[in-house]
Design a protein that fits this description.
CATH superfamily of the largest domain: DNA ligase/mRNA capping enzyme
Structural class: alpha+beta
Shape: globular
Number of strands: 22
Low-confidence stretches: none
CATH architecture of the largest domain: 2-Layer Sandwich
Helix content: 25-40%
Mean pLDDT: 90
Distance between the termini: 57 Å
CATH class of the largest domain: Alpha Beta
Radius of gyration: 26 Å
Length: 528
């Protein structure tokens, strides 16, 4: 635990990538394998489930620090991080050798089933025996989330240096559902059993947003262009007569889409495809809001399958005849994928092939992008014909050119303090639209303003508060902002009757009075 806390402190104290990689690689070389495995797990978002609520932690910390709860809460709001607040307010009372990282996590896991008084006794004991930064890390394990600028890709790079295994091979081995509770460092990283990896997906390759001067620099004939479909990015695996479906978030979702089981009969063993799960009924592609009816359902009834049938829109072929072919140029992978689709294409097989569009000029590409909404897509994807299928994002080979978002002018009605470096500023905003002569809340947003604008809005909120609800302040309706969003759907759960997707602030409309803001009727027209 002491060594791991020292690592986190090193990582937190620098923003230089090479220094972070060096610190991580050194830790992986020196730490016992059991601790190194848990470090990999924690830094790749595989954390033990939370054994105690943050409400109880706050109450116990206030008691141990001999502070009234209101003062602890005010301190928490100023610091902006519960783990750090507790680490600062609670003092070390007992000098003890801390447990190892793996032992500490085993204790936290065992805590889940214990009674509240046992949980309290254990946590207070640990708080009093750990020093400041060890206590901070302990609290982070309890609550989840190390925001220290270490991505899984960076962690994998450091692990590659420590164990001398290619970074791409390690990225593949670390995919899927694994836990230090059920595997070892050797079994997962050094000497994995091929039979244990039958369901294992590949890391997803992602695109950057298109740069403004792209068309001026690139020859159109070097690029494959296809629509960016608005569904759920997925990877379908068929191995040893079984099929597995993974989301981009590394969640195994095979049982959520039972109608795809037939693909194990139609695709040959040793096949892995990258694609998009889309609602598809009567030959028409649905939208993301329709797909949401299927996402997150614990029980997928036959009625729901009939109401929202699913298809996989195929993008890429990653494994063919049991061999990893990600290194092949995209053009060759696309030829193999097209041949595979031609063999399997028949009535009732839930597969579609994303069509490669061909254009003679970038102006024609731009016109195709304008058709995206009509096509039920988000815009276009531009992929270099020679590109391999990489890991994470690599600038220059895959680009996304999304359609212009929908926009609406709305009135600021509520604000809440932010987190982290913005904990002293009101940065989380609620916006409303007119309905008759009433302003009705329709969306929340917290991104899009400059630091200078945030400070101006913060001052406005503090000077124009009309009511308070805990950390939320209601403000005089005077400021108008242009809100951008990707999609809209009806929603009986919201007073406005609509829900928008990915709302964010596009600009502050200093030129508009609140009477000029849009109405609910205006936004509902976008549903038509």
């Amino acid at each position: 635990m002491r060594r791991f806390a020292g690592l986190i402190e090193q990582l937190d104290s620098t923003n230089k990538t090479n220094q972070k990689v060096a610190a991580l690689a050194n830790y992986f070389k020196q730490a016992p394998k059991e601790n190194a495995l848990w470090a990999v797990a924690l830094l790749s978002h595989r954390r033990p489930s939370r054994p105690v609520t943050t409400t109880l932690m706050r109450a116990w910390a206030a008691e141990l620090a001999q502070l009234p709860e209101w003062l602890f809460e005010e301190s928490y709001h100023i610091v902006g991080d519960l783990a750090e607040t507790i680490a600062l307010l609670v003092r070390q009372e007992a000098e003890e050798t801390p447990p190892s990282l793996s032992q500490c996590i085993k204790e936290i896991i065992a805590l889940k089933s214990k009674k509240e008084e046992e949980k309290k006794a254990y946590i207070l004991k640990r708080w009093k025996s750990l020093d400041n930064f060890e206590r901070f890390v302990f609290n982070k394990i309890l609550t989840g989330g190390f925001r220290i600028g270490v991505s899984q890709k960076l962690m994998t790079r450091a692990l590659s240096k420590a164990v001398d295994i290619d970074e791409n091979i390690l990225a593949h081995r670390l995919m899927g559902q694994w836990s230090p509770q059920t595997t070892t460092f050797d079994e997962l990283i050094l000497n994995p059993n091929p039979e244990d990896q039958i369901s294992q997906p590949y890391p997803f390759f992602l695109a950057y947003a298109l740069e403004e001067d792209f068309q001026e620099k690139e020859a159109i004939e070097n690029w494959h262009i296809e629509h960016k479909w608005d569904g759920m990015r997925s990877q379908l695996i068929v191995r040893e007569n079984k099929h597995f479906l993974w989301s981009r978030g590394e969640e195994l979702i095979t049982d959520k889409f039972p109608e795809l089981a037939c693909l194990a009969d139609h695709l040959p063993n040793g096949t892995v495809v990258d694609g998009e799960l889309l609602p598809y009924k009567n030959g028409v592609i649905g939208d993301f809001n329709t797909l949401q009816k299927r996402i997150g359902r614990k029980i997928v009834s036959q009625k729901l399958q009939n109401e929202v049938p699913i298809v996989i829109m195929l993008y890429d072929l990653l494994e063919w005849e049991g061999k990893d072919i990600r290194w092949l140029p995209l053009a060759q992978r696309q030829e193999l994928l097209a041949a595979l689709y031609k063999k399997t294409k028949r009535e009732g097989v839930p597969l579609l092939l994303s069509e490669i569009e061909r254009f003679s000029t970038w102006e024609k590409v731009a016109r195709e992008r304008e058709r995206a909404q009509q096509m039920r897509s988000e815009g276009l994807m531009l992929k270099h014909k020679d590109s391999p299928y990489g890991v994470g994002r690599k600038k220059g080979v895959w680009w996304k050119w999304k359609s212009d978002p929908n926009t609406i002018d709305a009135v600021l009605t509520y604000a809440m303090r932010g987190h982290g470096r913005r904990t002293n500023l009101y940065t989380d905003y609620t916006f409303a639209l007119w309905q008759d002569e009433e302003l009705v809340t329709f969306a929340k947003a917290y991104s899009g303003l400059t630091d200078a604008e945030i400070k101006q809005v913060d001052q406005f909120v503090k000077n124009n508060t009309t009511d308070r609800f805990g950390p939320v302040r209601q403000v005089k309706p005077e400021l108008v902002f242009e809100i951008a969003f990707e999609g809209i759907a009806t929603s009986p759960r919201h007073k406005s009757g609509v829900a928008v997707r990915f709302p964010r602030i596009l600009r502050w409309r200093h030129d508009k009075k609140i009477a000029e803001a849009n109405s609910l009727e205006d936004i509902k027209k976008l549903l038509e």
